[in-house]
Amino acid sequence: MSHLVIVSNRGPFSFSEEFLKDAQECLKKGVQPEAPSFGEGGLVQAMAGLLKPGKWDTTWIGASMGDSDIDVARGHYTGLFRKMKKAKYAPDHFPHIEIKRDGRMHFKYKEYDFYMRFVFFDTRHMHSYYSKFANGFLWPLMHLTRLPLFYKKTPVFPRPHFVKNDFVQYTSSSVTFANTIIDETRKSMALEKNGGNIVIWNQDYHLMQIAEVYKALLVEEGMYEKEKKRIHVGQFIHTPFFNIHEIQGLIREDKRNRVKAQVYDPFGETIETALQKLTWGMLSNDFIGFHTKEYCDHYLEALQEWFPVEIRIRDRFYEVIHQDWVTTIGVFPIGLDVDYILSQVAEGERLNYRWEGKSLYKQIVHDRASGRYIFGGLERCDYTKGLLSRLSIFEHALNKLRTLQKDGRFYQVTAPSRSESPDYQKLHAFLEERVEKINEKIKDVPITHIAQGITAPQNYKFMKEVDVMLVTPLEDGMNLVAFEYILSQKYRPPKERGILVLSTSGASRVLKQQGFGIEDGIVYVNSIRVSSAGEDVVQALMQKRRLSERVINYVETERRVQDWADKNIQAILNCRKTL
Hints:
- The chain is α/β, with parallel strands linked by helices.
- The protein folds into three domains: about 10-45 and about 60-120, no CATH class; about 125-335 and about 560-575, Glycogen Phosphorylase B (Rossmann fold); about 340-560, Rossmann fold (3-Layer(aba) Sandwich), CATH 3.40.50.
- The protein contains 22 helices and 19 strands.
- The strands form three sheets. Strands 3-4-5-2-1-6-7-8-11-10-9 form an eleven-stranded mixed sheet, sandwiched between helices. A six-stranded parallel sheet has the order 16-15-14-17-18-19, with helices on both faces. Strands 12-13 form a two-stranded antiparallel ribbon.
- Helix 7 packs across helix 8 (about 210-220).
């Protein structure tokens, strides 16, 4: 059997002391434990098919996020897991963990069956590389893809903050991850001596240096030349990729500040040198996947700006030739668990969620019976999502509707995110303040803000009730909410379906490329031009636009997440490594 090693900053499951204590209490009382959630995150959903028994022996490597992960990994809770299995609670209602002789941690839960490994960091290291460099610097910078520079034009989009020591810690974390992958590679080789493939698949912007360190360690240990036909390394970037031309002002500003500081550092690291190292390091992958051609092009433009590389087109992929090696670049937009979502929005399925002690479904039904259009928004609280712009778009649309003797109600659902970050705290405060001001200014309290989020599957049932779905990011790698909303409308009568209002994102690029537009119920807007966006929304409503059968069929058949995973792995396996 071939081996697949999925590597991400956040693993699919973590163990807290509270979670394990509750399990022990349930055993004492002879009560079945409450089944923990698994697979709600987008990445786990994307990998779900690979975590079930099949052609891959899968291991998932991720940073430890639970305070008892290390104890579980060392086997301190083996007795608990055995008792849970004996009581027939595991693996159907509770995860079953078995520590193998080689130290591999076998994870079974419901239909999932794979191996899991934790990478451990101390709190300070994790804060520096993850919270400060990855999320405080790389995350906002990767979204700088077009004018205007958001951190100068919007009140809540932060300036990407670069600190040399955080970059050093980011590099250090890559070494720690790479050594764990090397150890897993050895174990995979020991298990499979008949020449099976080993695929290392790195996920996202947290791990941009890992392939470079991993390949260097393979060479150092003498493994790579001997086993390079078996070992395949790939990466998928789930965010946009920065536009090299749009960040030049940021690079120049960084240089000016260093001159003004007059601090002598013979080994000084700058924004530009750090990004050069990350961009070059990614070339150690055999294959790199992006959501859209535009993100591919941004990466290739950065390479051409900084390095002597040759870029060729081969079939539907790009090939980057560097030092007689070849890295293949391709476009694979991520998809959805289509069948699960459709099962949750089928006829007879109804929203069952209470907000402030009342049924949200009944509130929406009452609003609709009163002649109001139901506007909706749903995502995590992030400054890239254009939440403040969205409120203004709704406000303009509502004012226009009321001049036409129409009305609307907006339900914005915002899940908490990175709450320890000052930038996100600032955004949350701005958002609450803006909602309050609009509700004070316009009679009848037109906005309901659900700041605690709505988890799956109720989120899909909520979207089913929405007439105007506002998906208005400043920039977004993909934004699956757009596709989820399209699917949610499948079982509504065609003349009662809603419209999707969509701004700059991977989803908008994919749908535009497929030729979908206003005739299919999709209103493309610029989230910064709020007045014209509001006008466009009202115009689409007055024209009785609705999501078409054509666009629903496209998402249902072409945007399946299992296809995305399979295509990426096949690309990693089949790409050229040398000329």
